[in-house]
Structures are given as C-alpha cells and as structure tokens.
Amino acid sequence: MLDVEELVTDYGPVRAVDGVSLRVDEGEVTAVLGANGAGKTSLLRTISGLERASSGRVVLAGEDITHTAVEDIVRRGLAHVPEGRGVIAELTVEENLRVGGLWRRQESASLEDMYDLFPALRERRSKPAATLSGGERQMLSIGRALMGRPRVLLLDEPSLGLAPVLVAQIMSLVRKLADTLGLTVLLVEQNARSALSIATRGVVLNLGRVVAEQDPDKLAADDRLLHAYLGF
After folding, report:
1. Closest by Cα among 135, 107, 104, 109 to 121
2. C-alpha distance from residue 22 to each of 43, 91, 109, 158, 216 (Å)
3. End-to-end alpha carbon distance in the chain
4. Is the dihedral of CA 55, 151, 195, 136 positive or negative?
5. pLDDT by residue (tens digit) across 34-89?
6. pTM, two decimal places
7. Between the CA of residue 3 and those of 62, 64, 104, 184, 200, what are the distances in Å?
8. In 98-167, beta strands by DSSP E
C-alpha cells in the first residue's frame, strides 16, 4: 500500500532523511523508532507532502505521489496526524471532526462512526476542543484524520505526554483499526515497547538512515540495538 524508495530530505546543508526505503502492506502497522533527531518526523512530513523530497520516491497504492500537492495526497487516501495533537481549539469537537471530512466530501466517514470509536468524544461533541484533556485531544486528532476514510494513516508520537493507561488505549485502537478496517499505519514513536507490542514490523532510524528492520518481537528482544539507538 505504501512504498518509500531511497527517500532523501534536506534542510539546507542538513540531511534529515538519508536514503530511507521501507514498505508497508495493507493492514500492517509499521513502527518507526529512533532517538530525537533520528529523522522520524521528517520522514512522515516528506511522505505526506509537507516537506519536499530532494530525491527518491513515495508510492501510494502503486501511484507515485512524491511531488503531489498535500490536498491531493489526502484525496488519494493518505492522512497524517502530526506530533502535538493539533486540534483547532476554538472549534467544537464536532466541528473539528467535520473539518477532517471536507477533502473527501461524500466519501467521508460519519460522525457516528467516530463517536462509536471514541465514546468520550460523543459526550463532549458540543464543547470547544480547548476544553479537552490531552488524551481526548489525541483521540480527536486521530478521529479527524479518520473522517477522510484514509487507506494509509501516518501517526507521529501519538503517546507523547499521555498517562500509561491512555497510551495503552491509543495503541489498542491503532491495532484495531488495522485489523478491522484494513487500515495501513506508519507509526512513529519513542515509546518503543508500546509501539512494538502492536506492530507488524519495526524499523529503527539513526541520523536519517534505516539501521534495523526486524520482526517486532526480535527487535524488542535485541538489547544491544535498543541500547545503542533507543537509549534503553
């Protein structure tokens, strides 16, 4: 469903993504791990069109989207939930969700679908997003992305700043979406243990390069690798 081929992203003289290649099949969850500065966020931003690739290709369902406009990438079925739970604070929960469906128009998911996935949002549907807790904001960010019925979902640090019980809920939801909807997920995380617990495969980045790609169980058991690149 998603192929990244020798992708390079430069910020002036700084090479943030250095020849990354990876593949995520339909219904898979691929966890991208690495320390701060490893290039994880830059990788997602380049895939979704927010940053321009210096070279390489991004292929979505067999179609090259490398230099496609962001709004067209969304229409073709790729959604990106950036780090930081970027909800529109002044809008209500329901208005935030409706914004997520605008690009797909008649193909968008229903509000009831989202409230079934996130019961806490149903209770807060008429409240401004500014009044939500951190966990509720993360649910809203994911729900807004899902309103466009994406085939591929990019998630950047969804567990950041959340209590362990909420982290477990978010990770369980991601696995459920892959299993029940066939959603393809590329998950960037520093919480390696949680990410690997739901992943189909794990990829480790260091200085913009892939240094390991393994079965998640093997990766979680590789103490040398975890210590060298993830600080465990």
Report:
1. 135
2. 11, 37, 29, 21, 15
3. 32
4. positive
5. 888 889 999 999 999 999 999 999 999 999 999 999 989 998 999 999 887 678 88
6. 0.89
7. 8, 9, 23, 12, 16
8. 152-156
